[in-house]
Amino acid sequence: MAESLELEFDRLTPDGMGSAPMPEAAGRVALAWGVLPGERARVLPIRRQKGALLCRLVEVLRESPDRVAPREDHYLSCSPWQVMRYDAQIEAKRRVLEELFPSMPLERFAAAETVWGYRNKMEFSFTEREGRLQLAFHERGHSLRKLPLPEGCQLASAAMNAAALEVVAWLEKRGISSSTLKSLIVRGSRASGQVIIGLYVMDENFPAAELGLERSAGWAVYYSDPLSPASVETRLLGRRGADHLVERVAGLDLAWPLEGFFQNHVEVFSLAVEEIRRHVPETGRIVELYSGVGTIGLLLRDKAEEILAVESNEAAAAWAERNRREARAENYHPRAARAELCAEEFLLPSDVVVVDPPRAGLHPRLVEALVRARPRRIIYLSCNPANQTRDAAMLGATYRPLALVGFDFYPQTPHVESLLVLERMAQKD
Predict the structure, then answer these.
(1) What is the largest distance, in Å, between two alpha-carbon atoms of the chain?
(2) Half-sphere exposure (CA, 13 Å, Cβ side) for 132?
(3) How far is Cα 200 from Cα 213, in angstroms, rounded to an integer?
(4) pLDDT for the residue numbered 1
């Protein structure tokens, strides 16, 4: 068994872990969640990874003035920065962007007013403790260990937690074991307060027709292949009530389904939309890539004669069409297609291109297509600023940075959202 170490932690890594130099190994560091800069802590080594020693926090021996008591025992699983004062969280996230973009001044970092109960999606697992079925999260760093959540999670709204606990009570009353359950997805609307749920089970004979719930506007039960760890539908076993929610962003109602994607912190996302609008001139044609259910493009409908919205997920593109009809946006045209495979077709001609890609960032083919198409302006919202930096560097011979703004979509966590505005440079003779 490895012996514990007492170390001085001097910084946070870009992904939010405490980092301490290893005295006996030059250039080596120990990393641990839940430790802040300036703290001395006892940690237990777990394994080595990429030249670093990953550790588990045992005890904080000297506390940082930025430390606060966490609200939840399971905080490392859902929000490892619960132990940090919120103003210190914002300052740490600001520094991440300043280090990633050293030559680009950060205009501002938009903090959140709501720092608890802000999420509109939670994915719970299940476990059993003392013979009782409970919601659970996987322990960070140990995918096979689960931590019970007797009251849900404080990142979710009270309505979402109540709906999740009602499902647990129903399952327990019928003697359903956690071994036949995969996960519970709970989604909530800030605008309406409504909740919908998706229960993923590994028993094809699960009694879905008997499920009766009062705290959710709609539910679906899916059989999900036990051989896959992911909560994906293999077969629909039953559905009742609403299959979607409606959220209001910047005065526009947008519908989105249980299985779809919607930005998690609606209030902060609204600030990001305002910032995007500030940098979009009235123009002829906007192309929106990774457009989802239309959350950004439809909010720009008054800025252009035509908006082409490209989304690889066909179901999301169909919801974007539905939202277009509800908004009566005749100039908004959603298309189901993979941007990296046919970007040339969509980008020529275009004045402004708006991208909000997944964490992987922009595909190299898409970057090449943007360089060839040369739109006047690229507006890039990112949930992974490190990859955004990479993409900006590949565009650097054609585009110069115009603005950089940070947003705290995920309080109590180290995740950072950033908006980078790029402007085309004049061509050299």
Answers:
(1) 76
(2) 11
(3) 16
(4) 47
Please tell me the least confidently modeled range out of 258-262, 297-301, 323-327: 258-262
Domain 121-246 has CATH 2.40.50.1070: yes
Torsional sign, CA 51, 57, 60, 65: positive
Q: Average the pLDDT over 144-168 and give the result.
A: 96
Alpha carbons 250 and 38: distance in angstroms, whole number? 41
DSSP 3: P
Show the tokens assigned to 40.
Answer: 């001395």
Distance CA 214, CA 218 (A): 9
Report the topology of domain 5-67. OB fold (Dihydrolipoamide Acetyltransferase, E2P) (2.40.50)
- Tell which CATH classification among 3.55.40.20, 3.40.50.150, 3.10.50.40, 3.30.870.10 matches the domain 98-113+264-424: 3.40.50.150
- Can you give the pTM of this predicted structure? 0.93
pLDDT tens digits, one per residue of 304-335: 999 999 999 999 999 999 999 999 999 999 99
The per-residue pLDDT for range 97-121, each reduced to its tens digit, is 999 999 999 999 999 999 999 999 9
Contact in structure between 106 and 417 (CB atoms under 8 Å): no
Q: Measured between alpha carbons, how far is 364 from 145 in angstroms, rounded to an integer?
A: 38
Joined together, the tokens standing for residue 367 give 């970057």
| Burial degree of 4 (CB within 10 A; 0-12, 13-18, 19+) | middle
**Distance from C-alpha of 15 to C-alpha of 93, rounded to nearest angstrom:** 10
Q: Cβ neighbours of residue 6 under 8 Å, at least 6 residues apart? A: 40, 41, 42, 61
Q: Which two tokens stand for residue 61?
A: 């021996």
Of the candidates 70, 87, 99, the one whose C-alpha atom is nearest the C-alpha of residue 12 is 99
Q: What is the DSSP string of 240-270?
A: EE-SEEEEEETTEEEEEETTS---S-HHHHH
List the domain boundaries for the chain.
5-67, 98-113+264-424, 121-246
Other C-beta atoms closer than 10 Å to the C-beta of 349 total 10
The label of the residue with tokens 């169909």 reads: 318
Beta-strand pair 352-355/377-382: parallel
Place of tokens 């109960």: 117
**Alpha carbon distances (Å) from 133 to 136, 190, 202, 212:** 9, 29, 16, 18
Burial of 171 (0-12, 13-18, 19+ CB in 10 A): buried
Separation CA 224–CA 156 (nearest Å): 24
Q: In angstroms, rounded to a whole number, what is the distance separating the alpha carbons of residues 357 and 368?
A: 16
